[in-house]
Amino acid sequence: MADAHTAASTEEIQFYVVDEEEHAHGDGGSLLGFWIYLMSDCLIFAVLFACFGVYGRSYAAGPSGADLFDLKLVAVSTALLLLSSITYGMAMLAMEKARKGTTLAWLAVTGLLGLGFLGATAYEFHHLIEIGAGPQRSAFLSAFFTLVGTHALHVTFGALWLAILMIQVAKHGLIEANRTRLMCLSMFWHFLDVIWIGVFSFVYLMGTLP
Questions:
Q1: Confidence of residue 210 (pLDDT cuts 50, 70, 90)
Q2: How far apart, in whole angstroms, are the C-alpha atoms of residue 184 and residue 140?
Q3: 173 in helix, strand or coil?
Q4: What is the rounded CA–CA span in Å between residue 114 and residue 65?
Q5: Which of 1, 81, 168, 174 has the fewest C-beta atoms lying within 10 Å of its C-beta?
Q6: Can you tell me the distance from the alpha carbon of 160 to that of 152, in angstroms, rounded to the nearest whole number?
Q7: Backbone Cα Rg of the chain
Q8: How crowded is residue 54: how many other Cβ atoms within 10 Å of its Cβ?
Q9: Which of 186, 187, 166, 178 has the alpha carbon at shortest distance from 102?
Q10: Which of 57, 106, 113 is nearest to 81 (CA)?
Q11: What 3-state class would DSSP assign to 70?
């Protein structure tokens, strides 16, 4: 009986170790796969930046960035997005301390800041189209709407992902699967911040130069 009990205990320990190893490899595989996705997204934005670099001065006798861009509005939207990166970092710190309520609170603030950024972008697009500076007006505006619109689309998907994760955390807590998902979204959100810094510098600041 003792031998049988010992054998059973050994099998349970081996099963537990194997299960933990497979779980750890699964999380590592998820993070690695997401890194690969982010690299592919980098290529997409690199192409869009290159297109804007080529067509950024092709105004077709139309308005230039200096005529159209409202740097005060862009500065506000930039501040909202960068601040959302800080609040997401606070959510990750709360997650590490297993504070579910605090994590959800910081995620909610992050989502609101992201929505504020999207609202500012939507207002800018609506204003430009309203004054006749839509994407069909010139190659410059086509490249501008494509680059900034693609970034805004990514932020929209990130906000939806954030809302879904908040529901998952509220329902199931900070389980390992939700922690991995939050880490993936953290990488995605910070990636969008880095891309936007490039957009702000390359498109808006340089676009207002004569």
A1: low
A2: 34
A3: coil
A4: 25
A5: 1
A6: 12
A7: 23
A8: 11
A9: 166
A10: 113
A11: coil
